[in-house]
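Look over this entry.
=====
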Amino acid sequence: MVPGAAGWCCLVLWLPACVVAHGFRIHDYLYFQVLSPGDIRYIFTATPAKDFGGIFHTRYEQIHLVPAEPPEACGELSNGFFIQDQIALVERGGCSFLSKTRVVQEHGGRAVIISDNAVDNDSFYVEMIQDSTQRTADIPALFLLGRDGYMIRRSLEQHGLPWAIISIPVNVTSIPTFELLQPPWTFW
């Protein structure tokens, strides 16, 4: 018996680790919910870096998601003060995923969410891997779809807000599938 689309959705939500099922690779997913601003109050899906970065040892009920300035976070951040003890939202490009993670870590960030720089990407997760420098990072690093990152940044700009308030990680196994408030623009 082959599950239908709804069955695959449930399978993805319930599997705790990367596995191979029916020839398809299913990623580890980590979920976070935007609490504010309200127009993007959805549960977003991200994938952790494959071979660098830390893990979440605690759940943050309310923490700021601060867009980095400059967005690519390849060097000094002009808003680094606001990233300290918060989570940074960074754009892909300009330097390695690990370099971005280290910049945020050096500014005291608790984690980094790196969104794809292809704003039309609403379905393809990039596997973030170590660069060739042998450096390490201790904070969690997550990859976010480009459309999701764009919509978060756009909402913040429209509301004149310097950050979003999020809850991370969110345990979606305790939420019925029909109640998952996922972004309407994201492809499943």
Summary: Residues 1-26 have pLDDT under 50 and may be disordered. The chain has four helices and nine strands. The two ends are 21 Å apart (CA to CA). The first helix runs from residue 5 to 14.
